[in-house]
Write a structure and sequence with these properties.
The chain is α/β, with parallel strands linked by helices and about 350 residues long. The protein is built from nine helices and 16 strands. A four-stranded mixed sheet has the order 1-2-4-3, covered by helices on one side. A four-stranded mixed sheet has the order 5-6-8-7, with helices on one face. The relative contact order is 0.13.
Length: about 350
């Protein structure tokens, strides 16, 4: 049985999401307590509960304690991971991308390709936006032999949700490949999307895009940011995302709108975070830094990349990999900002 004290490291939901994913892949029982003990609202929130239930659904397992506010769960996954078509509704503005990240490794090794239709929040603080997932994470994973795509069906924002995404995942042909990104070449054109819903009169998308473009141009970067005005969302909201990809490095930056957060402030935040990550000498952005860890740990061989800085999420994921997969041969090494992970060469059961 896998035992995890959820208060270790950052005490965040990262431990829960990654832990339940690995338990399902290994078909090992999981007991976790002190869930999200380090957060203002400890215990399972709606999106964390749905992650647990969705892993249960895909493996036909059983779980105890999966209710909002729960500080402890006991989870027994089934022996097989079932692909196919699934629908999940978080029921709040909880992150659809976080749920996707929990389930994507399972879909890679399911019995058949998978399609997820997920309702909830698509843009919020402290979670990757759908644009970062589609244009930064998924292209990176394709280099590792993972084919996934995302379609934004309807925008939805943190406070009220109501957004819909469709995610399609093919099976991995054999094992995940390691990736090495150890030095960055020159950043070329930067692409981006500035989206708002029911805020066209205030020109929010254009204002976000213009401020972001202005700051990037001052630093010598060329950017092409599309301004999108949506009318299909259930409520007002806004978000901005930019990204770039070269042979040697991948970077993205995003920011969700919020009541009282000016469009120009969003644009400057996104541009400055992007510039900071690129100038740090990293080969991946601050979000990819922790998102890639679980795939590197499952891959066959050694993955190596340079992160902008060590964060709580990176530290928590590295700790969890050694805690759960160390006995199977996984090894992690962090020297300065360079991450090196020896994977276990996981294959479909």
């Amino acid at each position: 049985m896998i035992e995890i004290d959820g208060s270790v490291e950052s005490g965040s939901g990262t431990l829960l999401r990654c832990g339940i994913t690995l338990a399902t892949l290994l078909a090992e029982e999981l007991h976790m307590w002190n869930i999200r003990a380090g957060r203002d609202k400890p215990g399972l929130r709606h999106q964390h509960r749905q992650s647990v239930l969705a892993c249960r659904d895909m493996s036909q397992g059983v779980v105890e304690g999966a209710y909002v506010g729960s500080m402890e769960i006991r989870y027994k996954p089934g022996r097989k991971i079932k692909g196919g078509h699934y629908r999940w509704d978080i029921g709040t503005g909880g992150s659809t991308t976080m749920l996707t990240m929990t389930l994507l490794p399972l879909a890679c090794f399911a019995g058949e390709p998978s399609t997820f239709n997920i309702s909830g929040g698509l843009f919020q603080d402290f979670a990757p936006s759908v644009y970062h997932m589609k244009y930064v994470l998924f292209p990176t994973l394709r280099r590792m032999g993972i084919k996934a795509d995302l379609e934004l069906k309807r925008p939805g924002y943190a406070e009220r949700g109501g957004g819909i995404i469709k995610v399609s995942i093919d099976l991995v042909g054999g094992k995940i490949k390691p990736i090495k990104l150890v030095s960055c070449d020159e950043v070329g054109e930067i692409k981006g999307i500035a989206i708002c819903s029911h805020l066209e009169q205030a020109e929010v998308s254009d204002r976000m895009a213009k401020e972001c473009h202005r700051i990037l141009r001052q630093e010598g970067y060329n950017a092409r940011i599309e301004a999108v005005y949506d009318t299909s969302a259930n409520h007002e909201g806004a978000a901005l995302a930019i990204w770039t990809e070269t042979e040697a490095c991948l970077f993205g930056s995003d920011r969700a709108g919020k009541k009282g957060r000016r469009a120009e402030r969003i644009g400057s935040h996104v541009a400055n975070n992007f510039i900071q990550d690129v100038k740090s000498g990293a080969t991946v952005d601050r979000f990819l830094a922790d998102q890639l860890i679980i795939y590197a740990a499952l891959a066959e061989g050694v993955t190596e990349y340079v992160i902008p800085r060590m964060t709580d999420h990176v530290g928590a994921n590295l700790w969890l990999i050694e805690h759960i997969l160390g006995s199977s041969g996984a090894r992690v090494e962090a020297i300065g900002n360079r991450i090196k992970i020896k994977g276990i060469g996981y294959s479909r059961r």
